[in-house]
Each structure stands twice: as structure tokens, then as C-alpha cells.
Give the backbone structure.
Amino acid sequence: MPYIKESEIKNKEERELVEETLAKLHSTNKKKLWIVKRTVDIVLSSLAILVFAIPMSIIALIIYLTDRHSPFFVQERIGRFGRPFNMFKFRTMVPNADKMLDTVFDQNEMSGPVFKIKDDPRITKVGKILRKTSLDELPQFFNVIRGDMTLIGPRPPLRREVEQYNEYQKIRLIVTPGITCLWQVHPQRNSVPFDEWVRMDIDYILNRTIIMDIKIIFKTVIAMLSGEGE
């Protein structure tokens, strides 16, 4: 993996862990799984776009009417093998949210390179509802159609987050990032330490099956209906 530099790992335990994990990955042939996943991605994402076409149009209109700014938020994320791509979401924050990050960064409630706070003042009233129901993620079905993302896989990180990854954490970039994952359906996910989040992602990568994906999709739907999002 060109983006994983084993030679730069000075910690012996970390190097052994990386070598062991990569050896497990190389010993499994997931080509057939990838073909099935890609087929399911295209079929289900196409159906989802058709089913949610009217709701997405209504959401976009509501967001636009609240402040007369674009209802969509396009953000660079890091995908498979460390390649950047533009991820689509419904905008849930005020238009200048990125510029306000420095004012709230010291309130970060997550460990590691990830930034999250429970009551982020940059989130709009409409945005709170969208995040709680995970409806802000709907435009990512277009990312799945494009091949940037898959339905199930580790969530795509920001560039500034990846820049802080150690070599073991970079292993989560070995597969196409997903709309939902094990962390996404974990109870009280925002209290999960980043190291545990990475462990769940790598555990999924090593053991992923179609049955596991179906279970995660089912749990995701339940989480959306019960409002267990942000």
C-alpha cells in the first residue's frame, strides 16, 4: 500500500500490528464480494434516489428558504488509497461554518483527529433535524453511483484528519468509504474513542460479508427512524 509507510514506523508493536493486519488482508480474496457490493450499490442507490427524489427536493427548498444559500454542501474527503473526492451532503450549518471552526475547536468532545461537539453553534435549526434523522446524508447516494463511496464502509475522513493518522490508522483507507458503517450504528457513537472507531473499521474490512452489510443497513434504517443520529 503506497500510502502506508511501514518503514517509518518506529514503534515495534505498531509495526508488528500493521504487518499482521496487512498479511490478513492479502490472504483474503474479496474480488467476488466487491463485484456483488458494487452491483448492490448501484441498484439500491438508484432506487433510493428515485424514492427520495421528492423528499430531497423538499429538503433542499426548505434549507434554501431559511437563508437563501445553497442547500448543498460539497466537501473534500479522502477515499480509497488516500485519494481525495468531493462528498455531497445537505448543508446543516451556517454558510461560513468552516471559517468559524477555530472559535469552537477547543470544545472538541472526540479523541484523536476527529472533531465533534454535541451542541455545535454553527448548526442551523433545520440542520439539527436533518442530522438527528441522518437525512443530510441522502445526497451521498450520488457519490455511490459515481464510485466515490459504497453503501457500507468506513466513513470518509477529512484531509486534516488523515494528516494526523499513524500508519495503522491508515489501513481504514484500504477500502472505498461508505455512507454507513459499524461506528455509525453504534449506540452513543460520539462517545466512542477514535482508536476504538478505527478498530471497528478494520474489523469490518477483515471480516466483511454481504450478510454483515445487510445487518448494518437494517440497523441504519432503525437508527434513522428512531432519530439516533447527531
About this structure: Residues 6-225 form one domain. The radius of gyration is 18 Å.
